[in-house]
Specification:
Structural class: alpha/beta
Radius of gyration: 19 Å
CATH superfamily of the largest domain: Thiolase/Chalcone synthase
Strand order of the largest sheet: 1-7-6-4-5
CATH class of the largest domain: Alpha Beta
CATH architecture of the largest domain: 3-Layer(aba) Sandwich
CATH topology of the largest domain: Peroxisomal Thiolase, Chain A, domain 1
Distance between the termini: 27 Å
Largest sheet: 5 strands, mixed
Helix content: 25-40%
Strand content: 15-25%
Bound molecules: oxa(dethia)-CoA
Order of helices and strands: EEHHEHEHEHEHEEEHEHEHHHEE
Number of strands: 13
Length: 330
């Protein structure tokens, strides 16, 4: 009987726009303070993409870095998945645009729209194709230009979001790799965070633009309550499948929406705060790209070594959530 194939992350890369937008600068744009933003969210600054820089541009840069890290070329890629809620356009899919930019073969390429959980959903999908032997190497990219859908006059949202991209090359590994996956969604609570217009329900009109319906709308305090419980439950779902205790996890790489959410999740999981990787102060909430960029930076900083078990954990619009245990195999 042939042995079950294992799939792991064999290359990582990120792209962060150069323009920094600080809390002090936001103080001049809306009625807010650096003190409010830091104490309520943990964010000190975020990155903003150039006006001529779209999601696919950032995604392609992150993917190039991941391919280099994996010691592979675009020609080696058999599948491309882009997780984004800020695609360049409705269609073609951003993944198709990235395929072209990278010079990949005519391999399958598609986007997934699951907001902040997108990187984990993307890895979970690619994992199935690789373990089944259908494909050998997949690119999973999480990229967002949230600045393009942010209402810069709304202090309750504009202080939170930023732009960026992270990418992973997935492929077969001998040991470790993706050990467990726990995904979920609850469409009943979809109204808590959404971008109402531009789709078939409310096509773009002068009125929809005047009503600012093309920007992210969010019920932050309500989401906050769900985030803590759902992220902790998703983490438990992924660890319990393997009979692991929280202590067996070397590092949790969470979606970076709010430092207070992450501290509460740590407490609920019985983990010390140093086991939760944080980079929210530099980037804010980059939706799907947050956990991807956090993973890239945690590995680059030497926080994860071969054989370590890490937990990816995310929650976001949809609502959607996902957690995944990975044994680092590089
Ligand atoms: O990415 C995944 C999905 N997103 C999330 O999971 C986000 C979850 N939610 C949050 O992170 C938090 O709810 C926020 C950071 C968005 C807001 O923090 P909060 O502690 O829940 O504040 P709040 O919305 O309850 O507002 C408290 C006060 C309000 O004033 P009043 O009514 O008490 O006078 C707001 O108007 O803070 C006010 N406020 C601000 N004040 C200064 C809201 N935004 C700001 C601001 N600066 N930027």
């Amino acid at each position: 009987m042939s042995e079950q194939k294992r799939c792991g992350i064999i290359g990582l890369g990120r792209y962060i726009p150069t323009k920094v937008l600080t809390n002090k600068e936001l103080e001049k744009m809306v009625d807010t303070t650096d003190e409010w933003i830091v104490t309520r969210t943990g964010i000190k600054e975020r990155r903003i993409a150039r006006s001529d820089e779209a999601t696919s541009d950032m995604a392609a840069e992150a993917a190039r870095a991941a391919l280099k890290d994996a010691n592979l070329t675009a020609n080696d890629i058999d599948l491309i998945i882009v997780a984004t809620i800020t695609p360049d356009m409705f269609f073609p899919a951003t993944a198709c645009l990235v395929q072209d930019k990278l010079g990949c073969r005519t391999v399958p390429a598609f986007d997934i729209s699951v907001a902040c959980s997108g990187f984990i959903y993307g890895i979970a999908i690619a994992d199935q194709f690789i373990r089944s032997g259908t494909y050998k190497h997949a690119l999973v990219i999480a990229a967002e230009k949230l600045s393009s859908v942010t209402d810069w006059s709304d202090r309750s949202t504009c202080v939170l979001f930023g732009d960026g991209a992270g990418a992973a090359v997935l492929g077969p590994v001998k040991d470790g790799g993706i050990l467990s996956v726990s995904l979920g969604a609850n469409g009943k609570q979809g109204d808590l965070i959404k971008l109402p217009a531009g789709g078939s329900r409310i096509p773009p009109t002068v009125k929809s633009i005047e009503d600012k319906l093309h920007f992210i709308k969010m019920n932050g305090s309500e989401l906050f309550k769900h985030a803590v419980r759902i992220m902790a439950d998703a983490a438990l779902g992924a660890t319990q499948q393997l009979g692991l205790k929280a202590d067996d996890i070397k590092l949790v790489i969470p979606h970076q929406a709010n430092i207070r959410i992450l501290k509460a999740v740590a407490k609920r999981m019985g983990l010390t705060e140093d086991k939760i990787y944080l980079n929210i102060e530099k980037y804010g909430n980059m939706s799907a790209a947050s956990s991807a960029v956090a993973l890239v930076e945690a590995v680059q900083e030497g926080r994860i070594k071969k054989g370590d078990k890490l937990l990816l954990d995310a929650f976001g619009g949809g609502l959607t959530w996902g957690a995944m245990v990975i044994e680092w195999s590089r």
